[in-house]
Amino acid sequence: MLDVEFRLENSWHPIEGDQGGRFVFTLVNLSDRPLQDFKLAYTTLTRVKQDPLCENAVFLKRNANFHQFSPPSGFVLQSGQSWRFTVQGLWRPARHRTDGAKSAYLTLADGQHVAVVVDDLMLEGRVSTAAPPLLPEGELAEPFCLLPWPADVALQAGKDIPVALYPVSGTQPDDLKAIHGLNLLYRRLFNVGHVPFSLAPVQQGLALRCASEPMLASDAYELVFGDEILLTYGGAAGRQYGLTALAQLLHGCRTDAEVFHFPASGQIKDAPRYAWRGCHLDVSRQFSPVADVRRLIDIMAWLRLNVFHWHLSDDEAWRLEIKAYPQLTTLGVLRGPDEPMLPQLGNGAAPVGGFYSQDDVKTIVAHAGALHIDVLPEIDIPGHSTAILTALPELVDGQEAPESYHSVQGFPNNALNPAIEQTYTFLGRVFDEMVQLFPSKLIHIGGDEVAANTWMASPLAKALMEKEGLDGTFGLQSYFMKRIQKMLAERGRQMAGWDEVSHGGGVDPNGTLLMAWQKPEVGVALAEQGYDVVMTPGQAYYLDMVQDDAWQEPGASWAGTVPPIHSYHYEAVGDFPETLKARMRGVQACIWTENFLNRDYFNHLVFPRLSAVAEAAWTPKDNKNWLRFAALAPLVPQL
Ligand code: ACM
Asked: Which H, E and C letters describe 137-167, residue by residue?
């Protein structure tokens, strides 16, 4: 017997005069029994609008990316036969093979749910091409493995590869611990690679002398190569970056001794271009197990990134254990046909969940901290809050009409209501627990994508607008955000958020950091308003975007096509006038996971672009070199 006895094929067909085109679905019955009185559900980012036009099917329901249909009444799907139906009235065209159904299942007359396999979306009526190689053949002017490339490199290549680097006798315990830490990092990243360091002298090894130098910045380091290596560093972060550079140099030689050499003499003087070198991970749409989060943090350390932005909540799930509200990680996390939340984005007949216990969080924060990576936690409010509102329905204005507004992802009534006092009680308790878990000075509160008519059907919100003289949705949002800012300040923290936090009057920009994601110009506008800015424009730094226009290339495309060369060359600071440059704190890659159905998708989309953002974050513009990057990027470990 097959594991799964039903298969749904899907294709997309362009239609003149309807840019959304049409889906064609074919459900094949591979079981040995006929099927009747059933419903078919699938999830897709290419949603139907309100009333889709269906041939040979009846549309039953949509909630965000969840869709459900039934065959015409009386239809029997015989063993070995198929049911073909079409769906027209899509909110946008499909552009890539990942724009079709991501999951499907059947619900039988007795309520039982049955798994259905669904896979790539096929293209009809046009040629479906494969993408060309995304990285060219690399070219190294200097035979050294260093990524990101340092600020200042003047090295002469040697012939020999040291067996290992070992600390000179008398090395301070802190330095010994840091060297040991780097060996552990290396081993976690490369199961088979030869460790770079030995704490005891090694024959054919090279001695390493470490020295702190208060004149250097805390994240700066220098390396001088000769009969021994001298590593001077400003602080513990700089020491780690210097040791990482040494580990990379050796790793290159051992990976390909024809191409890479270890320096015989010369020096590296290095410090990061930007203080903020971030990588975000959305664990709401798809849950990342603790081991994967730790490995991503390890990879970040290898790339000298230093802020892990952990997107812990969204419409699809709340992932952070909050002891005051256990229902957040029971009701607010389970998606499935009979669960509090419907299947979305790849979920099928089996329920899915997943959350981080507070012990998990402590382990991850400590792991990152040891690698000089700050963890910036995000709970995404007031929009993107379906999971919260599912867990805590008392936060809904009972007088507000259902489906009175929809988020851009199609979730109905998905925002916390600023006019309900319990909203603030709830958030206060959540912040109380978060500040115990996360040492980060900033707490990210989301603030993105509140739909333009949000709360306008809520009598409570209307009354608050009148009382406070607030103007519409964004006046209310600003009122809400100001209160949140105050609540964070009472807990000794400052606010980070997405760029829309500035809407409707925004918040006090003093000490507030906003992430410019919608387009680069937004970053400059925010800086003009006095906000600190981190540049994360989707057009360059969203690693879920497709890397080529080819149909067969996976990923999202709303922000366009983002080939690795573009992520690499994009100069976020380029548009900032001199007077505002200081407000730009740095850059960040964002990993949104709607399309990340498995580890291979993750690796395909995240690499090499994460490395490209890391180099853009670290390396001075004039030292960037695309062909060198192309030669080095394949050596970066993946998830
Ligand atoms: C975002 O991509 N909605 C921040």
From this structure: CCCCCCCCCCCCCCCEEEEEECCCCCCCEEE
Residue 1 confidence (pLDDT): 64
**Is 9 annotated in the active site?**
no
Mind listing the pLDDT tens digit for each residue in 317-352? 999 999 999 999 999 999 999 999 999 999 999 999
Maximum Cα interatomic distance, the chain, rounded to a whole number of Å: 85
**Catalytic one of 175, 314, 553, 594:** 314
| C-beta of 541 in contact with ligand 1 (< 6 A) | no
Positive or negative, the CA dihedral 48, 52, 58, 61 is positive
Tell me, using a 6 A CB cutoff, whether residue 517 lines ligand 1: yes
Type of residue found at 587: V
517 C-alpha to ligand 1 centroid (Å): 6
Q: Are the C-beta atoms of 587 and 536 separated by less than 8 Å?
A: yes
CATH H-level superfamily of 6-123: Endoglucanase-like (2.60.40.710)
φ, ψ for residue 406 (rounded to 5)? -130, 140
CA 536 to ligand 1 centroid distance, Å: 9
Residues 86-126 pLDDT 10s = 999 999 999 999 999 999 999 999 999 999 999 999 999 99
Determine the distance separating the centroid of ligand 1 and the alpha carbon of 537, expressed in angstroms. Answer: 9
Pick the atom of ligand 1 nearest to 590's CA: 2
Work out the burial of residue 191: count CB atoms within 10 Å of its CB; fewer than 13 is exposed, 13-18 middle, 19 or more buried. exposed
Least Cα distance to 41 among 132, 113, 135, 93 occurs for 113
Which pTM does this prediction carry?
A: 0.98
152-270 CATH choice from 3.40.50.720, 3.90.1230.10, 1.10.3720.10, 3.30.379.10? 3.30.379.10
